[in-house]
TrEMBL record:
Organism lineage string: Bacteria, Pseudomonadati, Pseudomonadota, Alphaproteobacteria, Hyphomicrobiales
A Pfam family annotated for this UniProt entry: ABC_tran
Name the UniProt record assigns to this protein: ABC transporter ATP-binding protein
Species assigned in the record: Nitratireductor mangrovi
Entry keyword annotation includes Cell division: no
GO cellular component, one term: plasma membrane
Principal location: membrane
Entry keyword annotation includes Membrane: yes
Amino acid sequence: MHLLAIENLVVEFETASGPFRAVDGVSLHVDAREVLAIVGESGSGKSVAMLAVMGLLPWTAKVTAARMEFAGRDMLTLSAAERRKIIGKDIAMIFQEPVASLNPCFTVGFQIEEVLRVHTGLDAKARRKRAIELMTDVGIPEPEERLGVFPHQMSGGQCQRVMIAIALACNPRLLIADEPTTALDVTIQKQILDLLMKLQAEHGMGLIMITHDMGVVAETADRVVVQYRGRKMEEADVLSLFEAPKHNYTKALLAALPDNATGDRLPTISDIFDGYAGDGASA
């Protein structure tokens, strides 16, 4: 049994010009202790698919799937109250733009402890102790003093570490990291990726890494799902994907890497999908 299994996920939004399908029949799975990368350019439906799993899309979004199970539980039939017991505890998400994702009106200590208040029976003293442990685990110096600071008083890298601490507060079984290094400089990106992989190995979590960075994919993933315009183009283990990509879109992504540049004109989307008439997914 997979930790998370999704079959034929469809997400539609109502627009002035009619329904817009942001996710179009995506199927994927991830197991415990496995890292699944979902890769594709901006607007390919990566984040929307995972927000659908989290139940964080606006009420106007229409979400359907043939199957959406977490640890054997049918996520599609859970009540809102039942889903809230899982989200943040067993499934956690690190969002894009850490500074924007944290509430500027509350200290980082309050925001870490809030997860513990909702999902555990710890008293105030135990929650503070756990918050200090978490900040230590994610590499924030002087954690006792830093509990009382506000997000704007911390760097982008430190805010990202706080987001990771919040996500790991209840030892989730599945962690979803949505572009966790996008807003950070190269040195901090490396530190955050190393931290995520270290914590994933220590806790035995399943990890879904959403990214458009093929370098991140090569460094972190066991398997890869490639998306474009809401559809799954290809799925493969990471070595097979880099050594023998099957779909033209995947080949174009890899050809666009600086190390692979030939000086020739890069293919356009119309070149890639000329005569294309299917989702092209391969398992």
